[in-house]
Amino acid sequence: xxxxxxTPPVTMPTAAPAVRRSWFADVWLVMTRELRPVVREPFSxxxxxxxxxxxxxxxxxxxxxxxxxxxxxxxxxxxxxVPAILVMTxxxxxxxxxxxxxxxxxxxAHERMLVTPLSRSSQxxxxxxxxxxxxxxxxxxxxxxxxxxxxxxxxxGAVVGILMLxxxxxxxxxxxxxxxxxxxxxxxxxxxxxxxFLFPLLILSGMLLPLETGPAWMRxxxxxxxxxxxxxxxxxxxxxxxxATAVGWGWLAALATAAVGLxxxxxxIVRSTD
Amino acid sequence: MIRTRGLTKDFVVSRxxxxxxxxxxxxxxxxxxxxxxxxxxxAGKTTxxxxxxxxxxxTAGSATVAGADITSDPATVRxxxxxxxxxxxxxxxxxxxxxxxxQGRIYGLDAGTARRRxxxxxxxxxxxxxxxxxxxxxxxxxxRRLDVALGLVHAPRLLFLDEPSxxxxxxxxxxxxxxxxxxxxxxxxxxxxxxxxxxxxDTMAERVVVxxxxxVIADDTADGLKxxxxxxxxxxxxxxxxxxxxxxxxxxxxxxxxRVPGARxxxxxxxxxxxxxxxxxxxxxxxxxxxxxxxxxxATAQAIRPTLDDVFLALTxxxxxxxxxxxxxxxxxxxxxxxxxxxxxxxTRKDAA
Lengths: 274, 353
Known about the structure:
The structure holds two protein chains of two kinds.
Chain A: H1 23-40, H2 44-47, H3 50-68, H4 74-95, H5 98-107, H6 109-115, H7 120-130, H8 132-146, H9 155-182, H10 189-203, H11 216-222, H12 226-238, H13 245-271
Helix pairs in contact in A: 1-7, 3-4, 4-8, 4-9, 4-12, 5-9, 7-9, 7-13, 8-9, 9-12, 9-13, 12-13
Chain B: E1 2-14, E2 17-29, E3 34-38, H1 45-52, E4 60-65, E5 68-69, H2 74-80, E6 81-84, H3 96-106, H4 111-124, H5 140-152, E7 158-162, H6 170-187, E8 190-195, H7 198-204, E9 207-212, E10 215-220, H8 222-230, E11 232-238, H9 246-257, E12 264-269, E13 272-277, H10 280-293, E14 298-304, H11 308-316, H12 320-324, H13 346-349, E15 350-352
Parallel strand pairs in B: 3-8, 3-9, 6-7, 7-8
Antiparallel strand pairs in B: 1-2, 1-4, 2-15, 4-5, 9-10, 11-13, 11-14, 12-13
Helix pairs in contact in B: 3-4, 5-6, 8-11
């Protein structure tokens, strides 16, 4: 039992300061709070890499074997596959982030934040913006790991490419949070919906196998998949083809995903508290 | 500090079913009060608290909390109150001290002040050795103290505690209350808490509001409630080997007991005489002396003070212990993801609309 007491109420105003913080400051507070565990335990970022590394290690060699017969050398296959794996890392990492919020809803941490003066929208936007940091770190790790295997990355293209992934990640992360809030009464629904979307989006993006060899309906379906445009853009960027039209479409797809994600996310969190 | 008028919350469960969780609560809490809201699970305690803390909007009625309207100006309410919910407020992947500082920053303190307050609270709540510990590594009692620290970091004028000690062992509960009461004395805080622990409401609160089926059914000090609604009980036993045989002695003693001020429900069971009286401890000496004068030997005498459970029984005909006593397993495992589901108890409050 301690005998320490609080400082006398001299420094204790009876009410919180009347000065209103800006919305951006709210977002910053939410984001830095979310990032603190990542900074404290940077190794946690590596756990998110298990799945992409499995694809690189087990699927990559198969790809070299099968696509390589069609005239591509092993190094060229990595050139084609690694940028796609970066998009996959983004997809896996950010689409599951809603489960963190689900956990905070179970424990009461989310409820505590809802009672604070932080605006609802800043709580969602701050969380979503935070997604950029781990996914950027993961992308850098994947690129570095693959360099010894003959993967060549155009430096400028790589930076722009990772930036594009960050924007995409904000959108997917935001949608994941929105999903977590929307299905809060049936938590298991989160994984049902997430898995239902995950694999069609993955396959219809041409990440794993080229869509060019697929049937016409699949190619048609892939045009409405923003990931497909981002995957194309990443391949062009890492190859150093910075002025390719694919890059323009990629940015459009990434920014549209971010915009839609944030709008849906903010609407969901604001409506959730009735 | 708090003023509600006709505060009502209905949860629409389906098209044909509406749960009336809170039905028109009028409640006034003055600055500095310590009020316990007591009631069985599903009585509407938590729903009321969630409305007052702006977590859910009332279906009807109005409430002013810490100077602002909960519906039209929730932002001001949030800035002026502290809230410790049923769950654990700290993020499990965060470190204890980080969370207190972050909470201070969220409430508009500058970085230096937030750190100082966090330091003060770590000391005051015995959390100092755990400052750098991850929240997931803390015990239930430690987490609960951290929750209280989070609720206090901005020195709110009004603190809401939703079942602050559910699931804690008695010693940890007493310890937590020591902390809360001392901080209250230092800061002149108004506290509203919900509980289903009778003794907690009894010993801690200066005022007890009993809620059942979404309505306030009694509102007084714990002593006042017991005095007006339950009353003391006097239980006497005549000696087996007295000069008068027990079969004649007991009715004679009952006759004496019935003259005690406020005596009612006098009953005899073998050698035992029991009755409700206004003030049992004060009645014992007089009865014993009168019995002795009449040649009766009183072997044992008990003056039983009523509990709040007796009050609840008198009010509703049901015992609060039946449903309130078993703590909700281990605190924190209680799924709080669904704000409506946790506050509705189909057993007690389902009404077909």
